[in-house]
Amino acid sequence: MAIFVLQKLASQAELILGTKGNGMARLALLSVSDKTGLIELAQSLVNEFGFDLISSGGTANALKAAGLPVTKVSEYTGSPEILGGRVKTLHPRIHGGILARRDVTQDVADLDAQQIRPIDLVVVNLYPFEQTIAKPDVALADAIEQIDIGGPAMLRASAKNYAHLTVLCNPNQYDSYLQELRQHQGEVSLSFRQRCALQAFQHTGAYDGAIATYLEQQSSDTETNPLPQTFSLSGQQLQALRYGENPHQPAAWYQTGATATGWASATKLQGKELSYNNLVDLEAARRIIAEFADPQDSPAAAILKHTNPCGAALGTSLAEAYDKAFNADPVSAFGGIVALNRAIDAATATELTKTFLECVVAPGCDPEAQEILAAKSKVRVLILPDLRSGPAETVKAIAGGFLVQTSDDQVADPQQWQIVTEQSPTPAQLEELLFAWKICKHVKSNAIVVTRDRATLGVGAGQMNRVGSVKLALEQAGDKAQGAILASDGFFPFDDSVRTAAAAGITAIVQPGGSLRDQDSIKAANELGIVMALTGMRHFLH
């Protein structure tokens, strides 16, 4: 027993003084939650570059199980892990070795006096806080336990002192680090260390932001204060894009959160790389089709160009819905973005291949349909099983800051609408009004949508005045406007649009109401025998 203790003390002294091997061995500290690539990295550090390893907790156990020589942090510091592992690396021997400046005489003297070895490499990634809070019904206490303390402290200290050591916070950096060592005779360039330090600060910043956002959500009254006092937005670059809206604008796609959700979780079955404009249009298409994503909803299809629907329809089958949406405006549908609320079947796939399309998104795709679509290899086909889940907030940049609002995800309820005309809608008209209202919500303001038989006939989008949007939508609908209905995203302050609609054959109008001159429009509707419903909620989209 006495011999074993003496051997252990001698081993510890060797590690502290750095007398292993030939000369002073370099020291690496490894403490990771995500152990991807850990063993391969450690093997190269030890066998190829002669590093000594210190580690803690599960990382040390994993290294020992792989047969690698490693000293636990508690043995190196002489202080045991306490508080159930909450305190392990918060020790002067660790942080002194990290923060010491090798070119400052007093720092070197302090290390020597305290028998502290400088640490050349820190490999740390953090407790999986974001993965924990992503679980349904996670308890607050469980989330709190996944707030890392020692990890961020080591990352920040290492990043601050990047002039003298390297910090790695992501397994995807390991190969590049080893390549640096091999290319520079066992050394690491300053530029590489600086890039790694930046990534470490970005990592801890995003980590702290996720914690702050979660805790604010737990403590705030979302009814009286739906948006936080401090809003943080961070993401990991998922893909560099060829360019943004135009070729002279650099662009990239970022994923928020540690777990891939939304478009980051979509599966691309075929087609070219997604562009900036593709993704913007796809998100607009998702928002529209989400209005019909409940299992009890009829098959639905929407075709978009430049974030506006040029055709949207419901059908008894998915192929019928697509056919109705396409025929609403076949000229604009060319090169469009298609969103479907059902898995693509063979019949629908056949229709999709009859024209040029940029992208198709659906919650699934039958094998036979996939074979048919393969004939159009350039069209991007994406599978996004969850079409309904979108961002809780929308963000727009302005000079000197940004604007944040909660997403416009209110579900329309016709039972809450006010029928303000003498004539009430029939059940069929009410269903048509609801369909038109759902589509109109996703058209750029000023927005007017004309529909019949659950299909768009005319869309007036983004005009500087509502009269212009009404004229555009009715001109596009043409003779089909006879017996159709009209939806407007904003109120009618004058009766001119009501009279124009009636002259084209419109039989019912749905609009939010709220104008001081609502009575003028209501009076005109009664005079012309038109049904008018006021929703009490507008849906401007800028």
List keywords for this structure.
alpha/beta; disordered N terminus; 6-stranded mixed beta sheet; 20 helices; 21 strands; 38% helix; elongated; 542 residues
Give your account of this protein's structure.
This protein has 542 residues and is of the alpha/beta class. It contains 20 helices and 21 strands. The strands form 5 sheets. Strands 8-13-12-11-9-10 form a 6-stranded mixed β-sheet, sandwiched between helices.
Round the Cα radius of gyration to an integer and report it. 31 Å
Spatial separation of the terminal alpha carbons: 78 Å
Main sheet?
Answer: 6 strands, mixed
Beta strand %: 15-25%
The total of beta strands comes to 21
> What's the tally of helices?
20
Oligomeric nature of the chains: single chain
Sum up the overall morphology in one term. Answer: elongated
Structural class: alpha/beta
The whole-number mean of residue pLDDT values reads 88
Point out poorly predicted stretches. Answer: 1-14, 17-22
The neighbouring-strand order within the major sheet is 8-13-12-11-9-10
Helix content: 25-40%
Write the layout of secondary structure elements.
Blueprint (H helix, E strand, L loop, with lengths): L1 H16 L9 E6 L5 H10 L4 E4 L1 H9 L5 E2 H5 L14 H8 L5 H9 L7 E5 L3 H5 L6 H6 L4 H11 L5 E3 L5 H10 L6 H30 L16 E6 L9 E5 L11 E4 L5 H14 L10 E6 L2 E7 L3 H11 L1 H4 L2 E5 L5 H7 L4 E6 L4 H7 L6 E4 L9 E6 L2 E6 L11 E2 L7 H14 L7 E5 L2 E6 L5 H12 L7 E4 L7 H9 L3 E4 L6 H11 L2 E4 L8
Parallel strand pairs: 1-2, 1-4, 2-3, 4-5, 11-12, 12-13, 19-20, 20-21
Antiparallel strand pairs: 6-7, 8-13, 9-10, 9-11, 14-15, 16-21, 17-18, 17-19
